[in-house]
Design brief:
CATH architecture of the largest domain: 3-Layer(aba) Sandwich
Subcellular location: Cell envelope
GO cellular component, one term: cell envelope
CATH class of the largest domain: Alpha Beta
Helix content: 25-40%
Strand content: 15-25%
Strand order of the largest sheet: 8-7-9-6-10
Number of strands: 10
Order of helices and strands: HHEEEHEHEEEHEHEHEHH
Structural class: alpha/beta
Family: Belongs to the bacterial solute-binding protein 3 family.
Protein name: ABC transporter substrate-binding protein
Shape: globular
Number of helices: 9
Distance between the termini: 13 Å
Radius of gyration: 19 Å
Largest sheet: 5 strands, mixed
InterPro entries: SBP_3_CS (IPR018313), Solute-binding_3/MltF_N (IPR001638)
């Protein structure tokens, strides 16, 4: 689950990850169908006045993190999260104004009021709920990948090199806990290899620099889809948890966002958006504020 940081899958003709350094990802997204959404006056009326008057919902986002948020060939931010946030903004009679940021700076910027909301595949956790509120909209777990034909067991990876994205849940919680268990049992530790960008973790796996990669399910599936001849999933998804949009603690915006996304869930539009991006497995039917388990 994206405790997340930054990321970027570098692509070459044929859809494979480039085996050389890259600086951006500009692929796909343009052929995904759009769901038509209209303003809902009764919900829009509840938008806090300052935001209503600006006409914009200022959204802090870290890209790329395919298929949730990334840039297309024209440099426009697209993805599942983007389409859902755009739909929520339309329900509220607003326009989503995306501001790129380092992942770890988004929540602090929400606390200071620089952004109204964060949208970057945030896992809603008890620790994060101490500083911000989360409006849940999706459910996802962790999925490992390995090089094809090289068996790696996510539950017994002692001594393996595992790529993660820095500051993600996989980086801060999952791998350290599993490695500590290995050491406690007298086995070699897991060598965690943390990258600033998710693309770097995926590229390292493709190149064989690591034995496995641990990331959010949609991200791993996307990477595997782009590199079918090189990498594959291993094990099952685990540690399912909600994604949420962080807002200021106690903010009046939180309940409004919750009502807007619940409206989209109830009428099937949220599911349709997820289906368009092939991530319907994570669809939930009830949004809550602060749903960490």
């Amino acid at each position: 689950m994206r405790g997340r940081a930054a990321r970027a899958l570098c692509v070459i003709a044929g859809g494979a990850l480039a085996l050389t350094a890259c600086t951006s990802n500009t692929e796909g997204g343009d052929d995904v169908a759009k769901v038509e959404v209209a303003k809902v006056e009764t919900i829009a009326a509840k938008v806090p006045d300052a935001i209503k008057q600006s006409g914009k919902l200022v959204v802090g986002v870290n890209v790329p993190y395919q298929p949730n948020e990334f840039k297309n060939a024209d440099g426009k931010i697209v993805g599942f999260d983007v389409d859902l946030m755009d739909a929520v903004a339309k329900v509220l009679g607003l326009t989503a104004d995306y501001r790129e940021s380092d992942f770890e700076k988004i929540i602090p910027s929400i606390e200071t009021g620089t952004y109204n909301v964060g949208m970057s595949s945030f896992t809603d956790t008890k620790e994060r709920e101490k500083t911000v509120d989360f409006v849940t909209y999706f459910q996802v777990g962790t999925q490992w990948a390995q090089q094809k034909g090289k068996a790696v067991d996510p539950d017994n990876a002692c001594g393996k090199r595992v790529a993660v994205q820095r500051t993600t849940v996989q980086d801060t919680d999952e791998i350290p806990a599993k490695s500590a268990k290995c050491v406690a049992e007298g086995k070699p530790e897991i060598v965690k290899v943390a990258y600033d960008e998710q693309s770097q973790a995926a590229t390292a796996l493709v190149q064989g620099q690591v034995d496995a990669m641990s990331a959010d399910l949609p991200v791993t599936i996307y990477a595997v889809d782009q590199n079918k001849d090189t990498i594959e999933t291993t094990g099952k998804m685990f540690d399912s948890a909600p994604y949420g949009w962080p807002v200021q603690k106690g903010s009046a915006l939180g309940p409004v966002l919750q009502e807007a996304v619940q409206y989209l869930m109830d009428n099937g539009q949220a599911r349709k958006i997820a289906e368009n991006w092939n991530v319907a497995a994570g669809v939930i039917t009830k949004s809550v504020i602060n749903g960490a388990q």
